[in-house]
Amino acid sequence: MASPTSQRTNKFTTLRLRFLMIMLLCHTPHESKLFSANQNHQKIFSPPPPPQQQQQDSNPHAAFDTLDLDGHFSFQNTAHASRDFGNRFFFRPAAVLHPKSVSDIASTVKHVYEMGPLSGLTVAARGHGHSLQGQSQADGGIVVNMESLTRRPSQGHLRGGGGGRYVDVSGGELWIDVLKETLKQGLAPKSWTDYLHLTVGGTLSNGGISGQAFRHGPQINNVQQLEVVTGKGEVVTCSEKQNAELFFSVLGGLGQFGIITRARISLEAAPDMVRWIRVLYSDFSKFSTDQEHLISLDESFDYIEGFVIINRTGLLNNWRSSFHPKDPVQASQFVSDGKTLYCLEVAKYYNSHHDDAETVDMQIQGLLSKLHFITSTLFVSEVSYLGFLDRVHVAEMKLREQGLWEVPHPWLCLFIPGSKMDQFASQVFGSIVTDSSNGPILIYALNQSKWNNNIKRTSLVTPREDVIYHVSFLASAVPSSTGKDGLDYILARNQRILDFSLGAGIGLKQYLPHYTTQEDWKGHFGSKWEVFLKRKLTYDPLAVLAPGHRIFKRQYQIRKQSITEGLLKNT
Ligand code: FAD
Fold this sequence. Notes:
Layout: H1 4-26, H2 61-64, E1 72-74, E2 95-98, H3 102-114, E3 123-126, E4 142-145, E5 158-159, E6 166-170, H4 175-183, E7 187-189, H5 200-204, H6 213-216, E8 223-230, E9 235-239, H7 244-250, E10 258-269, E11 273-281, H8 284-296, E12 303-310, H9 315-319, E13 324-325, H10 328-333, E14 340-350, H11 357-368, E15 379-384, H12 385-389, H13 391-401, E16 412-417, H14 421-432, E17 441-447, E18 467-473, H15 487-503, E19 509-511, H16 518-525, H17 529-539, H18 555-564
Parallel strand pairs: 2-4, 3-4
Antiparallel strand pairs: 1-2, 5-6, 6-10, 7-10, 8-9, 8-10, 11-14, 11-15, 12-14, 12-17, 13-15, 16-18, 16-19, 17-18
The protein binds flavin-adenine dinucleotide.
Flavin-adenine dinucleotide binds near residues 199, 201 and 548.
């Protein structure tokens, strides 16, 4: 009779073989990945076939039979997991896991890890799939649908008093749901993204920035604790004090070190109303001086962003449905046509039950009086706090109605050192980008010296200077167009921005980074690369996790590279 150990080994070997066979079957590239190399040498793949045309796997369930799951695997309805918001990269997974518990995720990752270095199987956490270049996809691997793990924060996970208030949320929770639940207690997270239909795990893997970040730092600066499933399938609770290395690795870590299953987010007292203000500049240096002045103040607006307007007509008429000119007569004399303009967008929060309206007005007047905008272009709107934070969703609904949401999104998001911003603006807004009709161009200053110093220990990469600018070109492409609104044109324009910046020594860093070569990834991480690689070796040594970024291939490559770089002995 076989010993319990050898029985276990046999069972495991059989399981491995069955799994490998199934993966080989599932890996058959029946969806055509048509390479259409464009000018930027990026690969564009054809969209996946509709579910009914997809190959039926022979008996893929067998490999997973021994996994005792609360949720389930799906092998046939995987088309959804092979797309993302970017609509340019399509990698079909072999299976989608719909977890109902953390242990579902842990046992799946552990299972893949235990298949060893020869297995090419990977696992990608998928939040809301709002990545741009396939980052939440797993070619022939397993996609974990994090949204099926959601656990409403109202179910007893909202805690604390005084400064220590927090909420425990699932990594698959949408920020809009976190907001709605915490508002029931008069509380809210401090730092946001502009759009809230993104998951907690998805934005914490990147950073999470918006107009509150100048004061509170990115979302990753407002997390007290995480629960993470590492690339070995271990479930680890981590914080600044407990398993700190893992905690800081995961924050901004592009999903490379673990899957966030729970996050403890700091909260503050929530306002209920927002005074939302837009003013225009035609002079970039006045605009940037004012932004930098506002972010330097202790008592400032609660939200500070901005955007660039190039070659747009009828701009102010578009605003009038939601913004009211402070002086309608003066505003009607302002003509925007053709000019490059810079819009400063700020907001002051208040509580309509406790705060005196006159005091709020006086604070706003005091702040505006020090600015140098074109006086006729002061526009004001009064909205609820929830309406303000969820503002992009309104735009989404409109675009969806017109069939303009699920189009290719060749976005380029950057951090520019403050000292180089004038040079960048003069070339990029002055000659490379000739109009802003393809989508908004965001621009706002951030003051890193105000952030919690721990940010430096996270995996987020930003330029070294205290003041940096976030600049995002959020273009939508018209699918079949070969003109200025077409994908190739916009990608070529993005490349020109990058080429100019490289040549001029701007020293930018990409946010939501996308690179196609390992050298470029090393360049991106710069002095953080060695730490990044060591962390990968510690927490995901077989490179099972987050293959969609294409930073690491499976174990062999990481090992080879570590040897080359002297981090491992060549044994
Ligand atoms: P996904 O796209 O599903 O995943 C993103 C990455 O995170 C993948 O690598 C994935 O594997 C990994 N991941 C997902 N879940 C987990 C998890 N639980 N644990 C570990 N890794 C995980 N970003 C900002 O910072 N500020 C903004 O204002 C902003 N606005 C946006 C507006 C729109 C309309 C869109 C589409 C995106 C915006 N983003 C913004 C970018 C957004 O933060 C990223 O696209 C983010 O990745 C999307 O989150 P998601 O939940 O859809 O994640």
